[in-house]
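Why does this matter for the project? Reviewers at the last site visit asked to see concrete outputs rather than summary tables. In response, this paragraph embeds two records directly. Each consists of the residue sequence and, immediately after it, the corresponding structure tokens. Nothing has been edited or filtered.
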Amino acid sequence: MIIRKTAAELEKMRRSGLLVWQILQKLGEMAREGVTTLDLEVAADQMIRDAGAVPAFKGYFVPAAGEAYKFVLCTSVNEEIVHGMPSAKRVLKKGDIVSIDTGVLLDGYYGDSALTVGIGEVSEEARRLMRVTQESLELGLEQARAGNRLFDICGAVERHVTSNGFSVVREYVGHGIGTKLHEEPQVPNYVDRKNENPRLKEGMVLAIEPMVNAGKPDSRVLKDKWTAVTRDGSYSAHFEHCVAVTSNGPWVLTRP
């Protein structure tokens, strides 16, 4: 069941969304050569606590992993697609790209967002990968309009990615969001004819999150049971925003 939010609920989601945006902006500035992904984790944890919020990811149980996640961030470097775990051993170096994904629970409602940043001077392909991934997100957000269908979002993302020679990860998808971190519907980054294609209505809130590989779309999960990586070792980028469907068009809740 897709849960539509009232205007008052959207305002609460806006507050949680802006908190996530503020955290990610600071982490993006922190992500420099010599910094560890655990350094980012510690800073994010403190910012969430200082805001009186609860981390959305820490303690989240995933059956496939058989355990709850232990961190407030997912920090995925280079060929890591999603769910990379912060570590004091993972030192960022020039040429890396790192996806930083986090969420919060504030006043009963969730916010969830992600960005990918380059460390120092990165390759032209890595820059293009990040740019195309971010552009595909913007095109998907633009389709979050009452009267459109879910596949309008999915298709917009997929067409832009594939037309630029990159590939969309299929195992991991976006989602509805509200009083739960993951609500209906699932939001693939490609048109999945086996998936439902609901009409978009006012009050729906979707977390749209393209995960794009420079090489082939195939992925695998490491022995840690969490970190998803590209099978061919190519770089992967990830951007995410939460967007509300309103009478005035798409309202991106996770940025000013």
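We now turn to the second protein, recorded in exactly the same manner.
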Amino acid sequence: MSVDIAKQIAHSLLKTGAVKLSPANPFTWVSGWKSPIYCDNRCTLGDVQVRSQIAEAFVNLIKAKYPDVEVIAGVATGAIAHGMLVAEKLELPFAYVREERKEHGLKKVVEGAAVAEKKVAVVEDLVSTGKSSAKAVERLNEEKANVLGMVAIFTYEFDEARKKFEELGTELTTLSSYTALVEQALEDGYIQPGDVDALKQWRAAPDKFS
């Protein structure tokens, strides 16, 4: 994505509280990592203009990169709503990918539209380590989908995630990024110049941050 779009989306994530920065009092993730950033992109759904901005950015991106897409697939649960908005605007079938296969009924892992032999663009809300995002692509591959690529709202830009997608052979494109967000947060006054080094140190070695 262009630098302008990345910073516009970053501004919206900060404005809606989808992303919070606190270098002095870090958050604790489920993994136990101490983090100066917390991201919950579901917050963007509560702002009509921002959710439309994100949907339109996804639509433009998908049209440019994957003009022959046949199905939009959202990753459960955070990207279901965003993916549905995109599918509606593109007038395409929609499916979503479960984290785990159901153990009852039809035991589906992909719900909604059929994806077998279809060209699928995957919508994700957040890419952190890439584990769950890559798993969604693997699930679609198991269902014999032709995955064109994944688009996401935001990425922490961890090397681990980049390597996972390289190994999968799947293209990952995001609307915004950690780098763009830190720059925008400084411009908007959410952080001070002295916070930037700490935020950069965390991204380089998140497991060692304190």
